[in-house]
């Protein structure tokens, strides 16, 4: 699954620099996660770094994007090969 940022986001700016895939960017009102770039930090870290630093706990799994660990690893390999 990719992660998503909910409307509880306070735009504190701490998640964006933590993303190793540059999947997080400012949206119109809150930060957003590009699901095509989010690997939940698979291939980089043991846990999603954005979730670790978020002070309001507003980065859950996106229920619309079911991905296995294997799919996330495949995405990581594609992203890092470019």
From TrEMBL:
The family database entries (InterPro entries) matched by this protein are listed as: 4Fe4S_Fe-S-bd, 4Fe4S_Fe_S_CS, PSI_iron-sulfur_center, YfhL-like
Gene3D superfamilies linked to this entry: 3.30.70.20
In its UniProt record, a GO molecular function of this protein is: metal ion binding
Name assigned to this protein: YfhL family 4Fe-4S dicluster ferredoxin
Which Gene Ontology cellular component terms are annotated?
Answer: cytoplasm
Q: Cross-referenced NCBIfam families, in alphabetical order?
A: di_4Fe-4S_YfhL
Its source organism is Vreelandella maris
Which UniProt keywords are given for this protein, alphabetically ordered? 4Fe-4S, Electron transport, Iron, Iron-sulfur, Metal-binding, Repeat, Transport
Q: Which domain of life is it from?
A: Bacteria
Task: Give start and end of each 4Fe-4S ferredoxin-type domain.
Answer: 1-29, 31-64
Metal-binding as UniProt keyword = yes
**Keyword Repeat tagged:** yes
> What is a single Pfam family found in this protein's UniProt entry?
Fer4_7
